[in-house]
Every structure is written in structure tokens, then in C-alpha cells.
């Protein structure tokens, strides 16, 4: 039973982390610009952020979902942040020149990109709901299972982002003088598309 809990946390995280998101794209960008070892720092930070989101969902349950449903402005704000991040990446060539010497912790970057994501928080509320209703599992009853579940969450996030890092390695091998700016534009377009989809979802549903 304990191993089932671990793999449930692992697979749930992989499924949730596979679609392109801010942390996924940041890993690709860092791998292309630097190397996969540097992008792993973002992955570890994002893994910690994912664990934090899952723990908040576990602790608060439906209160979290009801809170976001009552305060839609938070989800609109998230969509706006994604849009701004998209514009940032599209124009990042000029920004990088100005801020070249600026210190930036990749661990903190990964954590921030992961945790500022209300839809993922709601996703974890649904995951715990499935655990309790469909499988009859209460993590509170399994002290070791409790820790293994969140270990699965961390490893699932890191493993998924590592696969994105390997994709970045492939892009790096084919790197041309214009590939960096092209990658920035691609990341920007994806983030702005996610922002638009989130806004349309809130307005239509």
C-alpha cells in the first residue's frame, strides 16, 4: 500500500508537469544557454515548489478550491503574470545585456515559477479528492506513506523537468547564432498562449 501511495504521487506529478509551463521552458532555456547541470537547479527548486503546492492542497482541501472560485481575480492575475513573462522572454535579448551581472538564484527561480500557479493547486485538490473517494486512502493514516507520497511528488517534478533539460541539450547541439533569440521568442509565444487560454477559460466557464 505504501508503494502504491509513492507511485501515485510520482505519476500524478508527471501527468501534471508534462504540459509546457513556465518552469519547463525555463529549464530548456537554461540548458541551451548554459548546461543541464545549471538547469537541474531550477528543477530542484521547482520540485520543492510542487511539494509546497501539494501540501497546501492536502492541508486545506476544498477550502482552497472554494477560495479561488470566490476570488477569480487571483486566476486573472496569474494569467496576466504569464502574459508579462511572455513579453519578457520575447524581449529578453535586450534585457540580458543590461542585467548580465545581476545575481539570480536558479533554485529560487524554479521554486517561484512552480509555486505561483493556482491551477496546479486546484489540480492537487482534485488528486487528493480522488485518493480519498476512489481509493479510500487517507495519507494521515500512513506516516511513512505520507512522506513517500511527497517524495514521489518531488521526484516526479524533477524527472519531468530533467527530460525537458535533455530536450534543451538536443537544441544546444544544433545551436546557431540566431537559435537563442528564436528560443526566447518560442518561450514567449507559449507563455502568452497559456495566458490567453487561462483568460478565455475564466471568461467562458
Polypeptide structure, described:
The chain is an all-alpha fold and 205 residues long. The protein has one domain. Helix content is 83%, strand content 0%. The protein has 10 helices and no strands. α3 packs across α8 and α3 runs antiparallel to α9. The longest helix has 31 residues. The protein is globular, with a radius of gyration of 18 Å. It starts with a helix and ends with a helix. 36% of the residues are buried. About 5% of the residues have low confidence. This is LysE family transporter. It comes from Dokdonia ponticola. Its main location: membrane.
Instruction: Indicate the percent of residues in helices.
Output: over 70%
Unreliable spans: 94-103
Global mean pLDDT: 79
Shape: globular
Q: Sheet bearing the most strands, described?
A: none
> Count of DSSP helices?
10
| Distance between the amino and carboxyl termini | 38 Å
Number of strands: 0
Number of domains: 1
